[in-house]
Write a structure and sequence with these properties.
By secondary structure, this protein is an alpha+beta fold. The chain has five helices and twelve strands. β5 and β6 form a beta hairpin.
Length: about 250
């Protein structure tokens, strides 16, 4: 083999290795980013679609969503929804919370219009997502930043002007933890921010059971103990509820 032939073959070999290395690096990058976030977003839409079509029960949906949240790296989710940009100029109300819609980037396999509503909720310390329950709706809530006092209740039945409810969850949630509600499980929730600010990422599916969505704001401090593990709680209009529960005070 002459020197010229040897040089050509050596160059071809080096080029092949360089190409293989480039392809490997590209594929490794794709595996580390795209499948995690992409699979999460696509699966989320699939689960919400199944719920909307009544292919799965609400409790199963709650389990699926909470299980899904445990599998994704929070840092990747924050990048995916562009959380840093969403926080810019965020206007915190003195009572309650403020929201901003979330837009997912284009992703193969994910429809441009998802079957669920997606938002971030933000509040200052001592402010609250006021105590309320829902009808014909399911939602999941991932803590993106900060710490909150979370309480959940089961809706047992409705009476004129009241709900009969039962406490189910009372805990502190911090970044990366999640909760969910539906007509079938933990229907009522109440968040209060413990830190200077707190944010959640909310996924909301409306119009379940082919019925109109409804919300019930509750006067928890006026609840009557029924001595069987349940309580009778008055239903409030939203303005009254915000004035009483939108900003934490001593009761």
């Amino acid at each position: 083999m002459d020197r010229r032939t040897f040089s050509k073959e050596l160059l071809a070999t080096v080029t092949s290795f360089a190409l293989m290395d480039t392809l490997f690096t590209f594929n490794a990058f794709s595996r580390s980013i795209q499948p995690i976030v992409g699979h999460w977003a696509i699966s989320l839409n699939d689960y919400c679609s199944d719920l909307k079509k009544q292919a799965i029960m609400p409790v199963e949906w709650q389990w699926q969503i909470e299980n899904l949240y445990q599998k994704i790296e929070l840092a990747e989710l924050l990048k995916f929804i562009d959380f840093d940009n969403l926080k810019k100029g965020f206007q915190y109300p003195d009572l309650g919370v403020s929201t901003k819609p979330v837009q997912f980037p284009k992703l193969a396999g994910l429809p441009e219009k998802t079957v669920f509503i997606k938002k971030i909720f933000g509040m200052q310390k001592g402010r609250a997502i006021i105590p309320h329950g829902h009808s014909n709706m399911a939602s999941a809530h991932l803590a993106l930043q900060g710490e909150m006092h979370l309480r959940h209740y089961e809706k047992i039945r409705a009476e004129k002007g009241y709900l009969i409810i039962k406490p189910t969850i009372d805990k502190t949630v911090s970044t990366g933890e999640c909760s969910s509600i539906s007509d079938d499980k933990d229907n009522i929730h109440w968040f209060v921010a413990n830190t200077e600010s707190a944010f959640t990422f909310d996924v909301i599916v409306l119009g379940l059971n082919n019925a109109q969505y409804d919300i019930h704001n509750l006067d928890m401090y006026e609840g009557q103990d029924l001595h069987d593990g349940t309580m009778r709680v008055p239903v409030l209009d939203v303005e009254t509820a915000l004035k009483k529960y939108g900003k934490e005070s001593h009761h």
